Amino acid sequence: MTYQNIDINISEDAKAMLQVVRKFSMEVMRPAGIALDKLCDPGDVTAKGSILWDVFKGFRSLGLHLLQIPKSLGGMAEDLDPMAAALITEQLGYADAGLAISLGVSCMPFNSAAMFPVPEMQQLARDFCADKDFKMIGCWAITEPDHGTDWTLGGDNPRCGPSVKAVLKGDEYIVNGEKSAWVSNGTIATHAILHVGLDPTKGMEGQGLAIIPLDLPGISRSKPLDKMGQRPLNQGSIIFQDVRVPQKYMVIPYPEFIKASAGQGLAYVNGGMALVFAGLAKAAFDEAYVYAKSRIQGGKPIFEHQNIKLKLMKMFTMVEAARANARRMAVYNRMNIMTPSVAHAVAAKCLSTETAFTVASEAMQIFGGNGLAKEYSIEKMFRDARASMIEDGVNEALAIKAAEYL
Ligand SMILES: Cc1cc2nc3c(=O)[nH]c(=O)nc-3n(C[C@H](O)[C@H](O)[C@H](O)COP(=O)(O)OP(=O)(O)OC[C@H]3O[C@@H](n4cnc5c(N)ncnc54)[C@H](O)[C@@H]3O)c2cc1C
User: Fold this and answer.
1) In which residue ranges of the chain is CATH 2.40.110.10 found?
2) What would the pLDDT profile of 44-65 be if each residue is shown by its tens digit?
3) Which atom in ligand 1 lies closest to the alpha carbon of residue 180?
4) For ligand 1, what atom is nearest to the CA of residue 390?
5) Which pLDDT tens digit goes with each residue over 101-156?
6) pLDDT tens-digit series, residues 142-192
7) Is the model's pLDDT at 283 over the cut of 90?
8) β-strand 191-197 against 138-141: which pairing, if any?
9) pTM summary value
10) Does CATH number 2.40.110.10 belong to domain 139-257?
11) Ligand 1: distance of its center to the CA of 3 in Å?
12) What would the pLDDT profile of 298-309 be if each residue is shown by its tens digit?
């Protein structure tokens, strides 16, 4: 902590939990993220014996996979006050944004399953809550090689519709197509929340949503994606070839229901991104502040030079605006889970990710040449932040979409 945290209005229990999360995130996640980022072969990130599994183990053993699932299914959603939940997510992003995303996405299909009052889905959520050995890992499979922003913008143009299609035959859907190499946890996931095309005449408005296990015959994976930022976050495509998906896994089988739930999905995903990258923005500020206090130029710490003070104060202002905004949105949306504010969630995602990028860039300037050196973590934070403005929807496209919800 480089400056006082003024969001102290949480219970003593929540404060204690946050303390435990802070310890885990800084002692396990931060060093793991730095080590995983340095691996040349992205396949090594998820190899047997990789430090990644210590991160998953710690996350599950602290029960952090239970935060969104109701108590009746084994979760702890009602036990945690909304601000504490927001602070926990922000702290994970502070430690390592790519790993925070990997952990968050690992819960996604199961958190969603808990919302569907269907016995199979409720059981899936229950099994996930009981799974301390991370045998169940989730992913969100939406982007396709030829449809990225098309998914963000939606619409009824058949030329912009899903390439992964599901055709109902008897009591099964036959699924064919490919989800892109950008699917987070795509190389390790056991379950997916999967967007498919049901009615090709309606473009993206003809889609359905399935929650499926990924060990069904006909499903294969590509090699892991090699990329610039968030390297500890494994990504890879998922290919479907005549996959027989039992009808019970198609949780939204009617395109007309998708429109109603699309807002919830947008709010959920963007809400998490906003908190994680507000955390990264703060981490980049802290690195710069500590460095400025110790680096001597002109015969004194560079912090004592007016230009550095001004820079840091501007960064501080931006970081606090992003954190306050993300937290306010997260508390509201957690308390209104069925009717969240999509506009606030997207605004917070865009503000946090753009703040993280600007602050990491300014921090790099404060570091001078050292900012570019692998020895310091600021160049990694800069790369991680850059990816976030494209992640889960290009910011410009998200803003255009969210305007419809104003
Ligand atoms: C770190 C990271 C994690 C991700 N995780 C996941 C995940 O878990 N699951 C998943 O499914 N996907 C994931 N994605 C994919 C992500 O959602 C897509 O990359 C994003 O939606 C953009 O799609 P694209 O890359 O195909 O870009 P494109 O859609 O090709 O866009 C390229 C450019 O063209 C512009 N553009 C595109 N269409 C239009 C239009 N109609 N009008 C105006 N401008 C347009 C865009 O704004 C952009 O600047 C992830 C991406 C990243 C970077």
Assistant:
1) 139-257
2) 999 999 999 999 999 999 999 9
3) 11
4) 53
5) 999 999 999 999 999 999 999 999 999 999 989 999 999 999 999 999 999 999 99
6) 999 999 999 999 999 999 999 999 999 999 999 999 999 999 999 999 999
7) yes
8) parallel
9) 0.97
10) yes
11) 36
12) 999 999 999 999
Residues of the chain with CATH 1.20.140.10: 261-403
Centre of ligand 1 to C-alpha 354, Å, is 16
Q: What is the pLDDT of residue 324?
A: 97
Homologous superfamily of the 12-135 domain (CATH): Acyl-CoA dehydrogenase/oxidase, N-terminal domain (1.10.540.10)
DSSP codes joined into one string, 261-316: HHHHHHHHHHHHHHHHHHHHHHHHHHHHHHHHHH-EETTEEGGGSHHHHHHHHHHH
Q: Which atom of ligand 1 is nearest to the CA of 397?
A: 47
CA atoms within 13 A on the CB side of 185: 28
- How far are the Cα atoms of 8, 204, 223, 279 from residue 353, in angstroms, in the given order? 24, 26, 28, 10
By most ligand atoms within 8 Å of CB, the mutation choice from 106, 228, 276, 394 for ligand 1 is 394
pLDDT at 7 over 80: no
CATH number of this structure's domain 261-403, picked from the four choices 3.40.50.1820, 1.10.10.10, 3.40.1180.10, 1.20.140.10: 1.20.140.10
Q: Are 385 and 229 in contact (CB under 8 A)?
A: yes
Ligand 1 residue neighbourhood (C-beta within 6 Å): 105, 140-143, 148-149, 152-153, 182-184, 230, 387, 390-394, 396-397
Tokens 């009824």 map to which residue? Answer: 156
Task: Outline which parts of the chain fall under CATH 1.10.540.10.
Answer: 12-135
Do 356 and 280 meet the contact criterion of CB atoms below 8 Å apart? yes
